[in-house]
Amino acid sequence: MLTSVWHACYTDALEGDELTLLTAPLASTAEVEALYTAGLIDIDSALPCALHSLGSTASEIAGAVKRRREADRAGTDSKLLEAQTMTKVGDADIALKGAQALKTAAETKVVEEQVGKTKAETKKVLHEASAPHATPGAAASGGGPKPATAASGGKAVAKK
Asked: Which of 51, 89, 93, 138 would staple 56 via disulfide (CB 3.0–4.6 Å)?
């Protein structure tokens, strides 16, 4: 279906061109390792899948598979090589999860700071919206009612 759509959209596409969809249905390298260790998949399946789940590019995966095949032909201890590869993949998975945890902690701290700021702003708005407040210093500067004087048309009364 993808290839047919490709050829319909791009009339200049070569006849042999084929479009395929690549997905990563496994969630982590731990799943790949478990399948490989159980013998359900071989190294030619496990290595690309594990590297893909770690975000390796297609050329990086192809290079790793090529190096693995050359090592197998050269008589390198494949079990040792497999163990080293799986250890590296596991270490990379652990490092990735650690980095994700640090990122989440930093994001949590930012959100907590924003919540504190919002609480302070809300408290200030609620305070300002409540009943009128005396202006600080107004009583000390004589802002209250002025006594009546003769100049202002009032009668001055002297008390004895």
From this structure: 51
